[in-house]
Amino acid sequence: MGVQKVEFCQFGAGRIGRIHAGNIAASDRASLRYVVDVNVEAAAELAKEHGGRPATMQEALADPAVDAVLIASPTDTHADLIEAAARAGKAIFCEKPIALDPARVDQAAETVRQAGVTTLIAFNRRFDPTLGGLGEAVSRGAVGEVETVIITSRDPAPPPVDYIAGSGGLFLDMMIHDFDMAHWILGEVPDEVFARGSNLVDPEIGKVGDVDTAVVTLTTKSGKLCQISNSRRAVYGYDQRIEAFGSEGMLRAGNRSARSLESWTKDAVSREKPLYFFLERYQEAYRNELAHFLDCLEGKATPLVGMEEGRVALALALAAKKSMESGLPVKMA
Amino acid sequence: MGVQKVEFCQFGAGRIGRIHAGNIAASDRASLRYVVDVNVEAAAELAKEHGGRPATMQEALADPAVDAVLIASPTDTHADLIEAAARAGKAIFCEKPIALDPARVDQAAETVRQAGVTTLIAFNRRFDPTLGGLGEAVSRGAVGEVETVIITSRDPAPPPVDYIAGSGGLFLDMMIHDFDMAHWILGEVPDEVFARGSNLVDPEIGKVGDVDTAVVTLTTKSGKLCQISNSRRAVYGYDQRIEAFGSEGMLRAGNRSARSLESWTKDAVSREKPLYFFLERYQEAYRNELAHFLDCLEGKATPLVGMEEGRVALALALAAKKSMESGLPVKMA
Amino acid sequence: MGVQKVEFCQFGAGRIGRIHAGNIAASDRASLRYVVDVNVEAAAELAKEHGGRPATMQEALADPAVDAVLIASPTDTHADLIEAAARAGKAIFCEKPIALDPARVDQAAETVRQAGVTTLIAFNRRFDPTLGGLGEAVSRGAVGEVETVIITSRDPAPPPVDYIAGSGGLFLDMMIHDFDMAHWILGEVPDEVFARGSNLVDPEIGKVGDVDTAVVTLTTKSGKLCQISNSRRAVYGYDQRIEAFGSEGMLRAGNRSARSLESWTKDAVSREKPLYFFLERYQEAYRNELAHFLDCLEGKATPLVGMEEGRVALALALAAKKSMESGLPVKMA
Amino acid sequence: MGVQKVEFCQFGAGRIGRIHAGNIAASDRASLRYVVDVNVEAAAELAKEHGGRPATMQEALADPAVDAVLIASPTDTHADLIEAAARAGKAIFCEKPIALDPARVDQAAETVRQAGVTTLIAFNRRFDPTLGGLGEAVSRGAVGEVETVIITSRDPAPPPVDYIAGSGGLFLDMMIHDFDMAHWILGEVPDEVFARGSNLVDPEIGKVGDVDTAVVTLTTKSGKLCQISNSRRAVYGYDQRIEAFGSEGMLRAGNRSARSLESWTKDAVSREKPLYFFLERYQEAYRNELAHFLDCLEGKATPLVGMEEGRVALALALAAKKSMESGLPVKMA
């Protein structure tokens, strides 16, 4: 059935790229045709493992056999690649964020709109069975009218400081996921953002001008309230929880552990820690988001999260950053 | 409203007696009038703390103001006291077991029957909100037809060896509670008993001819199956769980902790151990069983567990002992 | 040992007064001597049930046999009663809040300071085994350096609207408990308060100018962050949770249920809802806070929460109200 | 690296065969070279999907490129295939049970011994992270000396009655897994088996002479005790739990759910049901057992479960059947 497989050109052969390439290769509905990376060796190695061959962007986009691009390259290349792919008529699966500059996002969105290509922005949490399950259930009214949303995201350990220097900082590289989930679960674009942040975990992070601990309050026009808290370090592992509270009850999404094993000793009753980090926790989410993208290409679904949602998440992240800097709440346009 | 209070004569001023006397004193429907104990000082002290005064059995039972007796004296006095109280027309609240000899139980039951006095045998677990709640729910059909019952009872630490010497051993002093719960939850008198026991915890227990670890299988005529396991020692505290499985699902009664506090560290996610032992775990059960007895006296309820249930639990315990000794399953008469 | 019992004069014979009077009566270290209430009948009834007799304030405070006062009368009488009791040299157990006007609180605090009487402000949550256990453990360094505190408080159902009209509103009658817990757990007086509130539960509450759903962010000088969320209604019952996160892990205090019973059916695995409301949930907390007060009088402890903590909680509540009204964060003096 | 991949010939293209073939294909250390099935179409289809081509046993075993066989054909072919593969010098991965006749097992074991080929009997539960994790931890002394083991296995729904007719019945097709786990966790071959069974779920099962509900007690020479209970139907899904209790505490292995999602409503606090059946629950276990087998072939591990363990599990199952039929405990030879 090879003729029917969706042929991918993947941009980016780094850590997240390896996951996506592996999922493409493991899918019986997709196939990896090209890998594009400035690091040609990395591209070659990934292609060797999961199929396809290294290529340049031009070469790959010119090949009519390519149905879709998967963009997992550095953030500052996303918008350019989205536009190039859109112009070449390829479907687009792009890692978040689209860009750090909202004007650039708008421009890329316009290009995509004109090209009319299917586009999925890879906010992976929406595809996690637990967190995505919460989002879907809330959308179906499982808690009645949503009133309060409480989101906790903590990484097990901070990233290298030089990563932070280029990532836009905590609100843009980390909390942006929570903004997208908040937007989805609230069912409204928040109207106001208030943020506070601290440098409590690693002084080096403070030196590059970022915080490692932050809380945000989102308020919607209809009065719904959302609280988000982030930390760059949790000694017990990746902490990813959401609580949606409403007129008819509450849904709570908790962490996941590798094993359901309890130990009862003279000291305590213990169970396992959460899965260590995103590679462990979101394994299924990454597979599911690819499957969702393929469903969209087959006309069985429409993208759960696209350019518009990417734009909103970025706008919330930038507003949070501005609020933290100014000390005041920031209204969304 | 003192005139309407149920006036008690309590037999036994030991550990379990202190609990019952305290509950009588704390109830606004009951009052302690006499305490009878061969240890007159203990009786006097208990009376001083919770009301009433020391007395002899004869004196107390001759007092028409006494409405009820609470028997918390040593096991070998239970049947005599039940009969004396029955003949004096007093309502009876008696600690389990009624006696260690089934013929003696039958005799006492006959005396009670003739006297027509209200009698409650204090199988406290039936009155524990969690375990009793399971029993009641199963009786109401919460799991459909009961098919399998699994009961786990473990004490935090073994009793003094000289206690065991006089108690009749594990099946009679400890597992008897589980036999009563099994009887209730199965909704049938078991037809066959198979037991195996070992001396794994304390060699001294073996020296007095008892086991400290035991498992029992009960089978009913209709094919329901029940597994009970006991240990005289659990390093993590009192372990009291029941699982009732049937055609429409399962009810699981778990342990109780003093606090709902979780600790997430680099090593594990921990919560509190179970409450240490019966005094902590069954505090509410003891209060509830007294309240139930008072309800019975007020005509609002009929005893949930009486002479007949006491007889069945004893018979099962003796059959288990016999099975362990013979190595063969034992049929109930 | 009656001569050594602490003799109480209790002010207030309403709902919370009944609980305290019952606990005094049940304690073997305390005794109820007088009940003072403008509703003399209520006072008489409470005295009949739990001991003592109705009296006027003057009469009661003039009696040298009175060791302590328990103030459970309406909020607007608290400060006057505190001062009168202090001047009479009585130890003081006072329900929160001290007053709604910070100047009045300062004045009363000064009077107490001069009188040198032992004073406990009854923030009951500090004495709940679970929530108080979290606070104590955090104080002992159980999570390392505290970084983020997340507090959720939801009532099962809103109070009558006329209660709200007189209570000062959600921040002063409800979230004030959370402010006290935050203050304790953070280990610092917060430096800034930001609040947002909505009227989502009951339009009548909005009509009297209050909110029924609110979130607050507290920031300390050292950069610790705290998020509080409140709702006047949770269909599943009283929701009282705290999460303290720090450099060495997290402590989570969860809700309490009456029974540890799980039901496994074809639809779901279910357990019991939380205890319904404060009377059920904080039964032990009320007993523990009285015991703590008695310990203080016996010189075995010093008050865990006094006038100063009462002042801080009030100041935070007022700042939150102001922030919500102004739309801006409010700095604490 | 294709030359280093372990080349498999798989026997059996049925349900469990599909899982194994998929895992071989997905592994970067293994490759499917032949599929052998009397249903040649099924073999061809499986080969088309996962690699290799249909072949006869003779053809496949004669190919020196074949390193290993994976036997997933009907039970009555296992012993013959084991022997043929052993004589051909192929490593053997065989589904349980080896045979239903212990003499046949011994014969096959002798052939394997003489051939000296690596052999793994696929008791998949040993490779489940949760259940296998318990077994490993107990082996390392996590509960001190093991004293009591309690195993619960319930299928969501009974198999077709004609399957039971050929499978040897509940003890041989279902409880055999529990016998293997018990053997492993007890760390001893049980000395005595006592079984009771009932026909409570489906009368048709009784008509073919089998039970659908059963409990077993195992006793070891050193006095360890084990209770196993099985049901062919659990309305809430696959129920696979083990509890190992010992001198230093307890390990409990619980069920697994697809999502960590809780729903708090006016009725209850609910979470998800367990994963539906073995295909869902043991997905990881099947992958892990293949990986373990490959590790054994690479000399990094020795088979955790081989012919001897297969023999013990069968012997226990047959003893249980005999005990149920005779009504008496059965001693192991």
Concise synopsis of the structure shown:
The structure is a homotetramer of 333-residue chains. Chain A is α/β, with parallel strands linked by helices and 333 residues long.
Q: Describe it for me?
A:
Four copies of one chain form a homotetramer. The first copy, chain A, is α/β, with parallel strands linked by helices and 333 residues long. Chain A has two domains: 2-117, 3-Layer(aba) Sandwich (Rossmann fold); 126-287 and 311-331, Dihydrodipicolinate Reductase, domain 2 (2-Layer Sandwich), CATH 3.30.360. Chain A has 13 helices and 15 strands. Chain A has a seven-stranded mixed sheet with strand order 12-11-7-10-9-8-15. In chain A, strands 3-2-1-4-5-6 form a six-stranded parallel sheet, sandwiched between helices. In chain A, a hairpin with a 5-residue loop joins strand 9 and strand 10. In chain A, helix 1 runs parallel beside helix 2 (40-50), helix 1 packs across helix 12 (283-297) and helix 4 packs parallel to helix 5 (102-115). Chain A is globular. Chain A starts with 5 loop residues before the first strand and ends with a strand. The mean pLDDT of chain A is 96. Chains in contact: A-B, A-C, A-D, B-C, B-D, C-D. The A-D interface holds A 26, 129-130, 133-134, 137, 142, 248-256, 258-266 and D 26, 129-130, 133-134, 137, 142, 248-256, 258-266.
